[in-house]
Structure formats: structure tokens, C-alpha cells
Amino acid sequence: MKTHLDCIPCFLKQTIESARITGADEKLQKKIIDEVCKIIPDFSFEASPPQMAVKIHKIIRELTSNKDPYKKIKQDSQKLALGMYPYLKEQVTKADDALSSAVKIAAIGNVIDLAVNDVATINRKLEDISNHEFAIFDYGQFTNALNNAKTILYLGDNAGEIVLDKLFIETINHNNLYFAVRGAPVINDATIEDAVEDNLDAFCTIISNGTDAPGTLLNQCSEEFMNIYNQADVIIAKGQANFETLNQVDRNIYFLTQIKCSTIAQRYGYCVGDWLMTTMNKLQAYDEVLL
Predict the structure, then answer these.
(1) CA 244 to mean position of chain CA atoms
(2) What is the model's pTM?
(3) HSE-up of 220 (CA within 13 Å, CB side)?
(4) Which of 93, 111, 192, 250 is most buried (CB neighbours < 10 A)?
(5) Which CATH class for the 7-64 domain?
(6) Percentage helix, strand, coil, to 5, in the chain?
(7) What is the CATH number assigned to the segment(s) 71-290?
(8) Is the dihedral of CA 224, 227, 231, 234 positive or negative?
(9) Domains of the chain: which residue ranges?
(10) Per residue in 111-141, pLDDT tens?
């Protein structure tokens, strides 16, 4: 996905929020904003928003001397998700179609973002999973692909929500599934440390994508990751950042996310807040009509 003019206010908003999360005083916050504003004229509109985010968060980490500003938020998110896990697992066990229930729960786990939502909001959305309708849910195609897959690559997103990814992975019960996380801390994205803490390694092989970028920037990923990416029969990509970095890639990737951006919503004919589980084949067809 390319960067749009409407992304620039979002970059600045994220800069301010991230600077405050680090505990920086107003003087340092202003310095961080000034430094980010200096690089905005050089942003390429051919690049994806996460490519810009890499530069922004590098500035924040360097000026605050904080390598993991969101560490506390990630820890709290992990605790929140682990607390919900028994209830959600029970819902999957009782469901008529356990896999369908698990994939929907994994998608809805995208709300576990304490940098955006408060605990009460997250709990309410997770407890009310039966009332979440998906704008598009290509379940039949997805299950056929899983049944025929020798290798599955699952691209994780935020810390906390990966607990719900684990529930989905348990339900898939595939003997050759790789779960990819970020290579270094960035925003509240999950790292290997987070995935091991959640015991995902009991159900899959955890790997790093080798980058500190939100999403999956393939030209920056490690050789190890790319080898698995290239051999995977099925790729599942969680979250909007993975969508933004991979929606123009020539692979049949299953995107599992909530639309959180009005630019994406308008481009593909959906609404902010809609849930999707689909491939770009379906979205591109509608996008071409819009264009």
C-alpha cells in the first residue's frame, strides 16, 4: 500500500503518542516532533506507511534512549489476553465449528491494543465475540487451502493478541506451522520473547522476520524468514500493518484484520471497524471497479 496525504497527520499523531508513552517531558516531545517534521518532506508516496514508521520510531528510540518504549503496554496486553484465554478457549470448544470460531477470535484479537483501546473496551469486544459480523469471510477457500498445505506461515502482529493467535494455531493443529514476529521491538508488536512467554512454541515454530519494522517489509527481512516465506503453501497475515506492507505482493496471502484506517476503507469499499478474512484476489476485484 502506498502512502497517502492523509497518512501524514496520522504519522504526527503517532509520533506525539509514542513520545508521551516514553515519559518524555514536553521539551523532549517537541524535539522529537521537530525531528520527525524534518524528514516528512523526504517521505516517498510510493512507500508503504510502515516504511515511514520505521524512521519515526528510530528517532523516538534514539532521542529518548529507550529501546522498547511500549514494553509496559505489551506486558499489560499479554496479561489481559492470558486472562481472557480460558474463556475464549471454552467458546471454541463449545462451537459447532471450532476452526471458524477460532479464526474469528484471532481476528478480533486485533483489538488488544492498549495504546489505542482501554481495558474495558477490549474486554467487552472479546466477551461479545458472537456478535461480530465479518464484512468478508472466505472461510471455505481458507479451509481448503489449510487442508492441502504442507507448510503454513503465520505473520503475527501485536503482543497480547498473539495469545489469541495461539488459540487459532492450536485449533489448526498443523505439524509444520511457522509463527513470525518482529526482529526487534517496534511499537507494541510482538517479538520472540513475547511469543515464547505465551508458550506458542508448544504448537508451532517461532521465527523472527529479522526487522524492526511494523508489518512485513520483504526487502528488509532475513534470509531465514524469506526461505520459509517462499516455501509456504499458505500465508496468514494478521493486522493492518501486515496488510499495508503485503497487499501488493504477488502471493495468495490470507489477511486477517480489522480496518482501522479511513483511507483503506474508502479504497476497498468497506467501513472503518469492519473485519476481514480474505485474500487480495477478492479485494482487488472491487478496487478495480472503484478506480
Answers:
(1) 10
(2) 0.91
(3) 16
(4) 111
(5) mainly alpha
(6) 55, 10, 30
(7) 3.40.50.10880
(8) positive
(9) 7-64, 71-290
(10) 776 556 666 667 676 666 656 678 999 999 9
